[in-house]
Amino acid sequence: MNVRALRTLATIQKDGSFINTANRLNMTLSAVSMQMKMLEQELGVSLFDRSFRPPLLTPIGRVVADKAQMILRANNDLLDACRSRDLLAGEFRIGFVPTSSVRLMPDFLAQARVQHPSAQFHIETGLSESLAKLVSTGVLDAAVITGTDDIPSNIHVELLMEEELVYCLPTPCTHWSIDRCMTGLTFIHFMPLSGIGRLIAQYISHSNLRPASSLILDSVEAVAECVMKGIGFAILPEPDIRRHFGKGQITLRSLSPGPLKRALVLATISDGRMRAYIEPLAKLLTSEAASKKAKSKQRTSGNRTNRA
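and the corresponding C-alpha cells:
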C-alpha cells in the first residue's frame, strides 16, 4: 500500500478539501484526485461522496483516514528506529517566520541537502502564532518561531538563538534622544500581531513611551527602508538591519532599559514523535546561524556604529 496516498488521505481529512491538500503537499489537484481513485480501487471501497463539492469522506472513508493516521505514525516510528542517530530521514514539514525564512532557510536547505540526503523538507512561512498552532495540531512537524509566553502547552521549544532588538534612527537624527524621537518622528511599528511585534509593543507599553504618531507595516524590510528614508524610527532585530544596511545608512541604538532580546526557538510537538529529530534539526539551524553571526562580525569589525 502506498504510504504517500495514505498521507494524502490523512491530510484531506485534516484540511477538508482536495484543493487545500494539494496546496499543503505541493501537489497538483489532479495528482491528489488520482491518488485517491487508485487508493479506492486498491481497497475496493468508496472513500468519498463526490456528489458534494468539495467531496466528503464517506463513513468508511473516515474509518480508513483514521487508520491511515495510525499507519503513518507507525511508519514514522519505523523510520526512527532504522535511521542513523546523526542523520535525518523521511519527509518533514517545517515552518519559518518570515525573518528566519530569509536569513536561515536558504542555507538550512542547502546544507540539509548535503548532510541529510535522505530527508525531504516541505516549507511553510507564516507568523509565529499561526505556525505554533499548526505544530500543535500536527499539520507541521516543526517550526522556527519567536518564543512567546502563550505558545500552546503541548509544544516543546528548543532555543536556537537570541537576537537583540535595537532602536533604528534615520542618520540625520543620530544624536536625537529617544524622547525627541517619540515627539518629533513617526514610530514605525512592525506588525503588532507578530512575535517580534508583540515584544516591541510590550516594551513600548512597559517603558511608558508615547509616540506622537505611528505607522504599522508588515515587513521588516519595509520598516527599515522607511527609517533610512527619514520617514520615522523603529525597533527591530539587529541582525535584520545588519543584513540590509551598512554603516551610515541607519543609526542603531541599544534599548534603555534593556537589552530586549527576541528568542528564536524550534517548536515541535511534545508527544515524543519528533524527539529523535530535534537535535539534528537544531544543530543544522544553529550552525548556520553561528556561521552568519561570524561573517557579520567580520564585516562590522573595526567599523562599528556608535551606540549610546
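(Above: one complete record from the training split.) Residues 1-82 form a domain with the Arc Repressor Mutant, subunit A fold (CATH 1.10.10.10).
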